[in-house]
Amino acid sequence: AAERRVLLLGEGNFSFAASLCGAAGTHVVATCYESEEEVRGRGRAAESIRRLRETGAEVVFSVDCTKLKDYFLPEKREFDCIYFNFPHCGRKAGVVKNRELLARFFHSSAEVLTEEGEIHVALCNGQGGTPADQPRREWHNSWQIVAVAAGAGFILSNIHPFKAETIHGYKSTGYRSQDKSFCVEGALNHVFTRSTPLPHFKPMICEIELKSQKVSFQVPRVLVDKINRGFLELSSNHPVRTVKEKLTEELSQTFPLQNIDSCLSPLHQGHLNDICHSNIFWIILSPEETPSTEEMSNGLPNAVLFSHVDFCKDTDTNGWVNVQEGCNIPKQYYLRPSLLPYAQAIIQRGAFPPGTLHVLSGPVFRKCLISPYSMPVFHEMVFVCAVNRGTENSCIQLLENNIKSSIDSLHQTVSNFKLNINLQEAVSFETAELNDFAAFESQLSKIKYFICTERDTSGSCEKHSCVGIIRTAHYELVSCELVVVFASLNLDLLAMLICGISDWRMLWTSDTRFLSQFPRGELRLFKSFSLYPPSYVHDVSFWVPDGEQFDEVALHTIARQVSGETVVSIQLIDSFQQPETGRKSLCYRLTFQSCDKALSRQEVAEMQLLFREEINQRLRVTPR
User: Fold this and answer.
1) Could you read off the pLDDT of 179-198 as tens digits, one per residue?
2) Domains plus CATH for the chain?
3) Which helix (H) or strand (E) holds 343?
4) Edge-to-edge strand order for the sheet containing 464-476?
5) What is the tens place of the pLDDT at every residue in 163-178?
6) For residues 480 and 306, what is the distance between their CA atoms, to the nearest angstrom?
7) What global pTM score does this model have?
């Protein structure tokens, strides 16, 4: 195996470096900022330097940690680990100067660190500014190490106490640039790794087969990184698929099961009941031909080549359309917001034996407000079962008990403690005979039961995450009358719940450190590789167009798109109406934070500027 190269910076008396030398498979390069003459006068420094050289370590003096590549030949620049213990500008330098030192150090380290290397920075208690510091300083009075590191593309992946007493021969020195030790009680070692870069998505065309014809369409920009990810494919180790497979396996012990996933199109066409049009990703497919004079006059000069997406000359930048009354556009489709509409096709098949549980699963899409548990795309799992009239309640109870016990069993296996799952009746169901799909879908919108997992003991519904619902509908078939029972589960939320994943965005990360925690499809407790990510707050205020209903969902969707899902909160903090003109002004507060990538202050500032431009152009608001 290749030797592990370790670089130590800012050594005061080389006692820390001496404690590492001689380790098998490790080559140590120990450096300090001062000259050899200055260092040798410090207590025990000469002895440590001699020991280092005797064991084959390199000792280099007068090294500036902000210009590391200048001190090593190109073939010697790649280090697997860089240590910088208790960095300081010297004497009574304040927090701002020390932040600047760290910023330049991280940028310099990026040039000499291997792709999977680590940077270890030890700081005195309180300096880092993370919740691990006890007591914790106010953010403005700390070194803000996670934010500073993010500027160079690094994330905090681990943090643990710096236990000086366990390091043989170690003695701190350099207090206010003197040969004096300083207090290291409560000190913390911060371990940083490289982040995957923030994505810059290009427009994406998706090709599918629709009604025996190959078509293509432009993917909404907010969904570009979420289309065709293959989480549910046979080769996938993703926890979403594992949850699906284990639930299916458990339910197959009670019900005959039939999987019908392969033939479901991502596009749907038809009447929508009880679904707000502003929450739908609309897709317009145009024929592959030159538009007619009539189409040109209707505002469709570019509606050609299946990939084009338009709608009455009012298409927003994200690839979906704004619905306007009176538009008469052919071939109007939308990305499926649920798999439940596909239930009709299943029911109308010739053979639909009572008692068989038909299983559908796949991603579904919807525009929604930004919140911890609201996702523009998630994987839905739908169970459909027909039973004889009068036996539906026992079927619901059986299905309910099996789903509850299966979820609880999975959670207990992973976490070793029992999960509190409530299955509560939400509304009573209205009996009806349904002979058309519009009425059928309307009845399906009435929730019978929902599975609610308590996240704390407050009892507040806002503290609960709804992972599924159970519904029933009476449907008169050709030869007999059956009652159809449906169960719909959000597999993404279930995977989060079972594996302890606190942020839904982590399910979609491209960082390999996520899936590597679930080898061979095992379900395990997830350990975050990005700790205490920095957050940034920006306000935006604007005048809304006179006489128009402001579309807050569109505002949130644009924020998702321009930030690459790094906006975690949007709050209306002020609303003002000018008495003289009646003009209305709104002020929103945006909080930016990434769960898996380095996010710098500069990058957020650029996102905020782009956000202002986009809402001005797409929502016709006037920024103040």
Assistant:
1) 567 778 899 999 999 999 99
2) 4-194 (3.40.50.150), 204-291+300-310+330-521 (3.30.930.10), 536-623 (3.30.70.380)
3) helix 343-347
4) 257-259, 357-365, 377-388, 481-490, 464-476, 449-454, 421-425
5) 988 888 888 776 655 6
6) 43
7) 0.84
